[in-house]
Design goal:
The structure holds two protein chains of two kinds.
Chain A: H1 17-31, E1 35-45, E2 52-57, E3 62-67, H2 69-74, E4 84-94, E5 99-109, H3 114-129, E6 147-151, H4 156-168, E7 173-178, H5 186-199, E8 205-210, H6 224-232, E9 237-241, H7 249-253, E10 256-258, H8 261-268, H9 272-308, H10 315-346, H11 350-356, H12 358-365, E11 368-371, E12 374-375, E13 387-391, E14 396-400
Chain B: H1 3-8, H2 12-28, H3 33-55, E1 60-66, E2 72-76
Antiparallel strand pairs in B: 1-2
The chains are: A alpha/beta, B alpha+beta.
Chain lengths: 409, 83
């Protein structure tokens, strides 16, 4: 019995290594295809070819795996050693080495969505680099000369923003840089638009954003290219992505985060009617403070005139009175000019301004009565038949006294 | 608002700040009459400047378009009223 000794040529059962390996390959590929496997990444290698080589392991075994370049490019999060993943693919045999391995066609982190992980990874990296640093954030201009808006020209976001601008600052000046806001090309276009606006000298604040959508829809605003462009922007950036609950990387890098595009429209310009109200108030205080100051001087002078001489005021007092008159006239000419301008510019505010104008104040509240050029402070200083002069906000009146009613002591 | 006018004239913030300062000074009543009038006139200028900054510009809404050579130019933006 020489069963164990075979002649090479004689036996049809003898296989070459290549033949055997090929059969093993066929067997493995037939039995282990399109399956999910869970394991921890180790020995990650990314050579220049762009293919990714790694080992999946658990406590008991290791499995060599390959991800071809096209697959690897589609992975949104960073593959790293120690990361536990779910990999989908098929087993094959690398014949030259007699090694079986898994060709991975899809991969996702275990226990957390791929996008979520990508977000966390980029957030961590950029945070460490200081891209979210509050010290880097630039203040917004109170009244922007020109507003750049980087968003889709056809989305809900641009309409929401324009509606706010129209309401708050109807004579706004804006320049839209239309970009795609979802899909593969979006991040590149958004970043390019931000960089382009920075080459212009007429834009001094910009809004970058889009309306609400799924996390995939908003993804461009979580991409590094957009984050870097925002960080590098010399022009302050207001981010406005999706709804309140969506925080994107762009939001974290931006100088100001608006919760929605509508909110961005509110942030980027002040409410003009409120500012006009503030100016009106200050203008009214300005006028009344000067009127008060002049009236104080008048009454001091009147008191002086009464004290010195009722009938023959001194030259000194007359000079002072004349000076006061001049001051009042100067103020009135300045003031009437102010009111005119206000009317022209404010339209609806003019009614309110009228009520506050110095003319109004003076006409209602102040005049001065003189006898022989001396200011009067008491009815006892005149008698019926005396000639009096009354100085009003505008002009003077001469009159004769009919009756006198001195205040009873 | 052109860049030129911006450099020459005070900004809204500056004009408002000056106005507030002047009003405070005048209301304190510590100034002489002549000084008061002088401050008042400056205040009136500041008021005018503030209003001017708010109202001088005209509404402009443009959109950037890329021409065939890859250069950007501005065009009127047509607002869609529908939807």
């Amino acid at each position: 019995m020489n069963d164990n000794i075979l002649t090479w040529d004689a036996s049809p059962d003898v296989l070459t290594v290549g033949e055997l390996t090929s059969r093993i390959r066929g067997s493995l590929e037939g039995n282990f295809h399109d399956l999910w496997v869970v394991g921890e990444i180790s020995g990650l290698a990314r050579p220049h070819s762009g293919h990714v080589y790694l080992t999946l392991k658990d406590g008991k075994a290791e499995l060599g795996a390959v991800m071809w370049r096209r697959t690897a490019e589609r992975v949104r999060f960073n593959l790293e050693d120690g990361l536990e993943v779910l990999a989908f693919g098929s087993i094959t045999v690398y014949e030259p080495r007699g090694r079986y391995q898994m060709i991975i066609s899809r991969i996702q982190p275990r226990g957390i969505g791929a996008l979520q992980l990508a977000f966390e990874q980029l957030k961590k990296k950029l945070k460490e680099e200081g891209l979210f640093d509050p010290a880097h954030k630039k203040p917004l201009p109170l009244i922007p000369g020109r507003i750049g808006i980087v968003t889709s020209a056809t989305g809900a976001a641009i309409r929401d923003i324009i509606r706010q601008l129209d309401e708050r600052f109807p004579n706004f000046n804006a320049l839209i840089a239309p970009v795609r806001v979802q899909g593969k090309a979006a991040a590149g276009e958004i970043a390019e638009a931000i960089r382009y606006l920075n080459t212009r000298d007429d834009v001094d604040v910009m809004i970058v954003g889009r309306g609400g959508g799924s996390i995939e829809d908003l993804w461009s605003f979580n991409e590094e290219a957009v984050a870097r462009a925002i960080y590098a922007s010399r022009i302050p950036v207001i981010s406005a992505v999706g709804h309140e609950i969506d925080v994107t990387i762009a939001d974290l890098v931006a100088d100001v985060r608006a919760l929605t595009p509508t909110a961005a429209g509110e942030i980027v310009v002040p409410d003009k009617s409120i500012l006009h109200g503030q100016i009106d108030q200050l203008a009214a205080r300005l006028r009344s403070s000067l009127v008060n100051r002049i009236e104080l001087a008048r009454s001091q002078l009147a008191a002086l005139a009464t004290a010195t001489s009722l009938d023959r005021p001194t030259d000194m007092i007359r000079r002072h009175q004349q000076h006061l008159d001049e001051l009042m006239m100067r103020m009135q000419s300045t003031a009437s000019h102010l009111v005119e301008i206000a009317r022209e510019q404010l339209g609806t505010f003019s009614g309110r301004l009228d009520a506050l104008s110095p003319m109004g104040v003076l006409a209602r509240a102040y005049s001065i009565t003189l006898k022989n050029g001396a200011a009067l402070s008491s009815a006892a200083e005149v008698k019926a038949g005396d000639r009096l002069e009354t100085v009003l906000a505008k002009g003077r009146i001469e009159s004769t006294v009919d009756a006198v009613h001195p205040e009873k002591e | 608002m052109t860049d030129k006018s911006r450099k020459e004239a005070p900004t809204f913030e500056q004009a408002m700040e000056e106005l507030e300062l002047i009003v405070d000074e005048l209301e304190s009543g510590d100034l002489t009459l002549d000084k008061s009038l002088e401050r008042y006139e400056r205040g009136v200028k500041a008021v005018r400047r503030c209003r001017q900054i708010l109202d001088e510009a005209e509404k402009k809404l443009k959109v950037l378009l890329k021409d065939e050579g890859g250069e950007f130019h501005e065009d009127e933006f047509e607002e869609e009223e529908s939807q």
